[in-house]
């Protein structure tokens, strides 16, 4: 049986000092207690480690061997304890994070960067996914966490509000409405409105289209042939407007600008975690909460 690590650490101090009085003072225990510890250590090992006399302490051959081999062994054990503590705190392991394309310009990168920077033992793999696929993937364990625009439906998960953003429209910089710091919903509805395919994110599609439900005449919605069309020629030419959250400003193509819609409710970005949470999931939640506070993602 291996000796207890406390006695082993006491022995190493004594091996350096070669004096019971000084070693006991350095450790912070009484000298008789240290002597008793050393006798018990020798009994456990079945060999003498020290030769004692009234003036000094000398290491035996076994004692010298233990003094040389014990420090790296204790250091390895300390690393093992640290790894266990880090794992129990969710600071160690592999995190699989799924995020929707619409959160990939700013929100997801900020969270991934903070997780990596604050948790050196955490390996983070982030992958873009179709929004409707994220919640089921978290629920069945294919990914550990997800970031979605809107509170997506699904069971077996818990959702946490990560960010709240104003709703507005993207439009050409030369568009007449771009002259206003805020745009009335009815004024925006007078132009064709560009919405992505509903299948990409039914929750947000329905929320954006509902903004214009009561306007007269009814708005004309235009769905591009390709979701997340990078050319956005119809917008740059001033033909259409695109309802969008404030995060659109971050990855805005040249020639476009964004203006808030007066009185429009905000859009939300949600952190999705499993219902049954491990230390890793709790760590993600804590980091996300701190980040949201620091970056003012959830204004009062």
Automatic annotation (TrEMBL):
InterPro entries associated with the record: LysR_HTH_N, LysR_subst-bd, WH-like_DNA-bd_sf, WH_DNA-bd_sf
Keyword check for DNA-binding: yes
GO (cellular component) term, any one: protein-DNA complex
Key word Metal-binding present: no
Source organism superkingdom: Bacteria
Pfam name, any one: LysR_substrate
Record keywords, A-Z: DNA-binding, Transcription, Transcription regulation
Residue span, HTH lysR-type domain: 3-60
Annotated GO MF terms: DNA binding; DNA-binding transcription factor activity
Family, per entry: Belongs to the LysR transcriptional regulatory family.
Designated name of the protein: HTH lysR-type domain-containing protein
Annotated source species: Streptomyces filipinensis
């Amino acid at each position: 049986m291996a000796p207890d690590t406390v006695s082993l650490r006491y022995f190493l101090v004594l091996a350096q000092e070669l004096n019971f009085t000084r070693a006991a003072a350095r450790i912070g225990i009484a000298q008789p207690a240290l002597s008793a510890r050393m006798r018990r250590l020798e009994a456990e090992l079945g060999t003498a480690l020290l030769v004692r006399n009234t003036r000094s302490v000398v290491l035996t051959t076994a004692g010298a061997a233990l003094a040389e081999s014990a420090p790296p062994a204790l250091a390895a054990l300390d690393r093992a304890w640290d790894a266990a503590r880090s794992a129990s705190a969710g600071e160690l392991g592999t995190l699989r994070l799924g995020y929707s394309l619409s959160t990939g310009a700013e929100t997801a990168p900020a969270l991934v960067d903070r997780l990596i920077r604050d948790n050196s033992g955490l390996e983070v793999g982030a992958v873009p996914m179709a929004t409707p696929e994220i919640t089921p993937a978290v629920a069945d364990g294919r990914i550990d966490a997800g970031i979605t625009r809107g509170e997506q439906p699904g069971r077996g998960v818990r959702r946490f509000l990560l960010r709240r953003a104003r709703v507005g429209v993207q439009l050409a910089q030369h568009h007449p409405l771009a002259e206003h710091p805020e745009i009335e919903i009815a004024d925006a509805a007078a132009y064709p409105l560009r919405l992505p395919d509903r299948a990409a994110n039914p929750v947000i599609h329905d929320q954006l289209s509902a903004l214009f439900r009561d306007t007269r005449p009814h708005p004309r919605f235009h769905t591009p042939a390709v979701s997340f069309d990078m050319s956005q020629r119809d917008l740059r030419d001033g033909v259409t407007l695109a309802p969008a959250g404030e995060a659109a400003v971050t990855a805005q193509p040249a020639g476009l600008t964004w203006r808030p819609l007066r009185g429009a409710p905000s859009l939300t970005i949600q952190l999705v975690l499993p219902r049954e949470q491990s230390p890793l999931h709790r760590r993600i939640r804590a980091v996300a909460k701190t980040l949201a506070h620091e970056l003012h993602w959830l204004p009062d």
